[in-house]
Design brief:
The protein is α+β, with helices and mostly antiparallel strands. It is built from 2 helices and 4 strands. The protein has one domain. 30% of the residues lie in helices and 30% in strands. The strands form 2 sheets. Strands 1-2 form a two-stranded parallel sheet. Helix 1 links the parallel strand 1 and strand 2.
Length: 61
C-alpha cells in the first residue's frame, strides 16, 4: 500500500485525503493546529458558540 502525507486539514486537505483513502492509499494528515478544519472552526466564549468558517470563504472581497 502506498503512503501519502497531506499537509493541512482545511477543506481541501480533508477532501483530498478522503479521496485518496477511497482509492486505497494510506493517508496521514499533518496539521499545525490543535484542531482540524482550517478556517472553518468554532469559537466558544462565555457560553456562546460562533461558527467562524463560512463567512471567510463565501464573503466577497
Amino acid at each position: 500500500m502506498k503512503k501519502i502525507i497531506v499537509i493541512g486539514s482545511g477543506f481541501g486537505g480533508l477532501a483530498v485525503a478522503i479521496r485518496l483513502q477511497a482509492q486505497g492509499f494510506q493517508v496521514t494528515i499533518m496539521e499545525k493546529n490543535e484542531m482540524v478544519g482550517g478556517h472553518a472552526y468554532q469559537l466558544k466564549r462565555k457560553g456562546y458558540t460562533f461558527d467562524m468558517g463560512p463567512s471567510l470563504i463565501t464573503a466577497p472581497d
